[in-house]
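Lab notebook, bench 4. Continuing the backlog of folding jobs that were queued last week. Each job is logged with the same field layout so the records can be merged later without manual cleanup. Today's entry covers asparagine synthase (glutamine-hydrolyzing), a 512-residue chain. Filled in by technician R.K.

JOB TYPE: sequence-to-structure
TARGET: asparagine synthase (glutamine-hydrolyzing)
LENGTH: 512
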Amino acid sequence: MIKIQEYSGHIRNWEALCKELSIDSTLSREDREAAILVKAYETWGYEMGNHMHGMFAFALWDEEEKKLFCLRDQFGTKPFYYYETAEGKLFYGTSIRKIMEQPGFVKELNEEMLQLYLSLTYVAGENTFFRGLKKLMPGRYLIWQNRKLTIERYWSPEFHPDESKSLEDWADEIHTTLQKVLKEVKTEDEEADSFLSGGVDSSYVLAMSDAKMADSCGYEEERFDESKLAQATADILGRKMSRCVITPEEYFGAVPYVMYNMEQPLGDASAIVFALGCRATAQHTKLCYSGEGADEFFGGYNMYRNAERYGENLKTFYVGNTNIMKEDEKKKILKKYDPDVLPIELAASIYEETEGLDPLTKMSDVDIQIWLEGDIYFNVDKMSTAAGLEIRMPLTDTRIFDIASRMPSKYKVNEEQNKVAFRTAAAKVLPEEIAFRKKLGFIVPIRIWMADDRYNQDVREKFHSEMAEKFFNVEEINAIFDDYVGGNSDNWRKIWTIYTFLVWYEEYFVKR
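JOB STATUS: finished
OUTPUT FIELD FOLLOWS
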């Protein structure tokens, strides 16, 4: 007998799986997905993940073999954690707090992670800020039997460039595949909104979906307010739009809520905006589309245009989308610094996997395996869950990635444009000025707000606190803060990353 111990997610290709596995497709979603997990395990065993599309993390108990089987989806859109106790028990699940509540869990800070966090701004790799608590990484499964832990990889990104197709061929394949995926993303009786920024990814998803309402975040400061571009897109597509205007007071007020619900610190300033956006959206819907994945798959970041120039040097420094503090600076500000704990080590095995491939592919693969899991998908899952909102990401799909894995880099990035083939596909349903609009990123006016004494009092207090003195040379971090307030706005990310760690630490080690 197979029993489901833990499950989080949405299985997209449920109709095909119900036919293949002889499951009643009229069952409720909960019963249907439970039946799929059990039957898929009985049919395909450890390879079951390769037969499923969607977002999922789960744990199954095999009563006959007295064996626990846990699996996380290919890209890590859903989190999964595990912890071995001193008594030889295994705690596991999608929530760190639930694991922490179990007798036998010893709450201890894993201070090594702070050194990595100060560079990356997120928790990368399998370790966490709680000593002994680990992540099951994407595309892996875990087996626990007879008190023995085994972890294997069932899927990894592979790249095999196909030079035989034209730009139009690739655009057509993206378009037809996304049409297929969107038919699976929800059932006919479900209604979904769609998050919308000024960028092509969310605009393309909205245009291809049946969402009647778009949801966007904006600010009173016009130069940062991307929601006006979103409104113009919604108008062109004939959709209604709900706009959440975020004030600095709301933004800073939400930081403890965000760090608590993240369960791990996250120094991505857009995460606060996303959290507030999720709460606003959850007031009128419980299901929403979002456009994550395309940038990493199809060459969306402006820095990717430097890939050829970086060449073989990539493996000496490129650890993903963010790398804000170098080792010399961390030596100065940290009370404990270990020269053997280096961010680049997290990417070493990925560079081995991509040996012989072009530089853009190497950069993309690092971001797919490290940045997406550690920052983007982590943020989406934790903040939507906290708000009671379910988010589905049509562009994050192994079938969409399969196209990107075969596409030569020249169709991803050129001297003038990024995401070339993807934008060409989007232009089939969007005006060219939207499909080929320059990438803006998720703009947050935090770099200005945090220098304002009306909003930065908690930052100042934390930087001078006894809590800060445990980890930092406070005179050094305050020198960075004073330099920032004095006009060096380039320091804002460093300030924010230190601050978010301190807020998170207070939530988990001081208050509780």
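OBSERVATION: The domain at 167-313+368-435 is CATH 3.40.50.620 (Rossmann fold).
SIGNED: R.K.
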